[in-house]
């Protein structure tokens, strides 16, 4: 029987953290073969079956996978016990325009969808809390990962120095060619451009490093930040890449769950 192929991250014995790959599902074409995102135009039946397979792989029920509808903003949604008792419609409303999800509920998998954008996972062992962050270039400029660390501190008492972080597969600096307006957006927000930007024919921005630096600036220890290091653009046969496959294609799901 087909089963999803996941890239697992070794964060802690009590944590399951992963990114989905393009193998092991029932999708086809630019959605092939494993996509669980319902917002990108895929066949709903294929999405439902892939989601069922992921639940089976993780050993949880369907309602325990939390996927927000992302809009490149900075809203961080906390998933608590009362959320889990809501109707699907109410859940959907609370997950609209959300780009990071955090929880301290065991057995609940929070995650984000990407296809060149940068997924970041955060785990606070001391307080039993975790967070998944979607950081495209707009979210990175708006410092969403800093917002996520702040929100974990506000709700769980998280200290940045106590966090373990993983930066998942996303577009590399070599592949992330941008216009002058994107370069200027980073410059206006005070990013160290000589460190995060390179000029070839056009500007290229290092989103991995941008998010790593933001976490360090918040107090996350450098040796507790791992970068998975796979460029989705260069490896679109393994991971979805909107720049290579078009926006009408599947999405990587990067999730984290405290067992």
Strand content: 15-25%
| Quaternary status | single chain
Helix content: 25-40%
Quantity of strands, as a count: 14
In the sheet with the most strands, the strands line up as 4-5-8-7-9-13
Rg, Cα atoms, Å: 17 Å
Helix and strand content put the structural class at alpha+beta
| Mean pLDDT, all residues | 97
Low-confidence stretches: none
Tally of individual helices: 9
Q: Note the main sheet.
A: 6 strands, mixed
Q: What is the ordering of alpha helices and beta strands? A: EEHEEHHEEEEHHEEHHEEHEHE
Principal-axis shape: globular
| CA(first)-CA(last) distance | 25 Å
Description:
There is one protein chain. The chain is an alpha+beta fold and 259 residues long. It is 28% helix and 24% strand. It contains 9 helices and 14 strands. It has helices at residues 44-58, 81-84, 88-94, 137-141, 144-156, 180-188, 193-196, 207-218, 242-245, and strands spanning 6-9, 15-20, 65-66, 76-79, 100-103, 109-114, 118-124, 129-135, 163-167, 177-178, 197-199, 203-205, 225-227, 252-258. The strands form 3 sheets. The protein has a 6-stranded mixed sheet. The longest helix has 15 residues, at 44-58. The radius of gyration is 17 Å and the shape is globular. The chain starts with 5 loop residues before the first strand and ends with a strand. The model has no long low-confidence stretch (mean pLDDT 97).
